[in-house]
Amino acid sequence: MIQDAVLKIAGPMKPEVIRALEHRFESLLHDSIEFHIEQDPSLIGGFAAYINGTVYDTSLLTQLKQMRKYLTSADE
Amino acid sequence: MQSLESIGSYLQNKIHSFEAGNASVYEYGTVHSASDGIARISGLTKRRYGELISFGSDTFGIAMELSDDDMGVVLVNNADSVVTGAMVRGTGHIVDVPTGKALLGRVIDPIGRPLDGKPLNPGGFRPLECPAPAIMDRAAVNEPLQTGILSIDSMIPIGKGQRELIIGDRQTGKTAIALSAMLNQSPQGVICVYCAIGQKASTVAQFVHTLTERGAMKNCVVVSATASTGAAMQYLAPYAACSIAESFMLEGKDTLVVYDDLSKHAASYRAMSLLLHRPPGREAYPGDVFYLHSRLLERAAKMSAEKGGGSMTALPIVETMAGDISAYIPTNVISITDGQIYLESELFNAGVRPAVNIGLSVSRVGRVAQPAAIQKVSGQLRLNLAQYREMAIFAQFGSDIDSATKQLLSKGERLTELLKQSQSAVFKLSEQTAVLAAYNADVFKSVPVDEVMRVRDALLDYLWDQCRYAMAAIDSSGALSTKTEGVLNKAFAAFAQAYAADAKKD
Asked: B386 lies in which domain range?
């Protein structure tokens, strides 16, 4: 059982969606997970799962940051 | 309009080709304690030493202590916004500073944020810690860097690429010397970087004001970590200043960097080290305090012609306590640098300003770089002054003195007067050469001691008026030709005659 799993979400999320996410991560990490939910509007959208020292980040904030980096970088 | 359209379509294509990954996966750590500007973090492994750690919301720290299970991070800014349990991530890059022309005339903090309220669009970035130029990339110090201060340029000459320490008690004019040197670089196009470490913000503001007022700020960059910033900022400041100067040096430009001062820098590093529980050594400084300064000053260099021929001259400043130059930090920095300018409070209080103690000041490499003109007229100066200082002590006892000693004393007194200079007044090479040549020609022999400074300035006005071309020739060639020397000697004779006539009239 992974104890310190945190799921940061931008806005309210349905319990069944959260349950589905837990299942997905459980099958990925081969361990049971129960998320502690934190709301963080700065993510804009999506979620960021903090599990065992690793972040699985699908938030819009991070994607936008990546896009900024991509657009301001020079072409190869 | 076509170019606008093409930019639009270019951006459109680029946006279309952007692929958002499913999820970005990275490491995070957790703050488990934070006190005195140090945060302990668990969970982040495989971080580099010196890596910038992000605490979110514009708060950063530097990984200074790495171990298997946790990490000591020194907080650079917003130290009070860090809470336990907060999640942090490594940024993957070492601390860097903005570089390039956009910095000229600006005041920034050690992590590159402008402090003068204007936006900054830097040309590039450079890591704070860079290796010093390699042996083969360096050239010998062979060009002079004129400070505009007569006593320094004549007796303790500084060359481009040299490290010359300015050392003395508080209130002896250390910063004033650095300021004069910076003001004198403006016409030569040497880029100056001034680094204020742990100083009062009002002092830094005054310094910037003087530079602006004298029109020198357009060639200067000020890196400031005032006393109100944390130890980490003060620790980073000289490295930031060095990296900025270094980037100009690598472009082939001449630079001058002033670290004001390294004793406060050492003290802030000591504070950081003690809080990180590193074992204290002598005077409670950590074991690597020598390396702290040696790696900084080693980056000053004169680059070879193949590497662009740029240079970085360093003027570190160290404050002593009650004139004790054998304390830990002063001895360290003296041994690292290529010479020191030692300022004494006794001299300062006796009205000898700049209060340079010639006996304890040396320049180990600058003599080679000294302009021929001043080399020609300053040969005996050091010896004369040393003899005078020695004799002056004996003369105090009021014993009978022979005429030779009397002459030595009278010459010495006048020389001491000649070397006095008001704050931030700078002498050109020609003016310095002329004053010393006049001294050698005994122009000031019959001038009363308290009149010497006034007569010196009158002589310079006279020379600029009467033999402008000879003076300009010295400035442009850096040498004193026999012809110019003849012109000057004639002018000296005429001036002395006029002065004698004037004195008689009174």
From this structure: 377-505
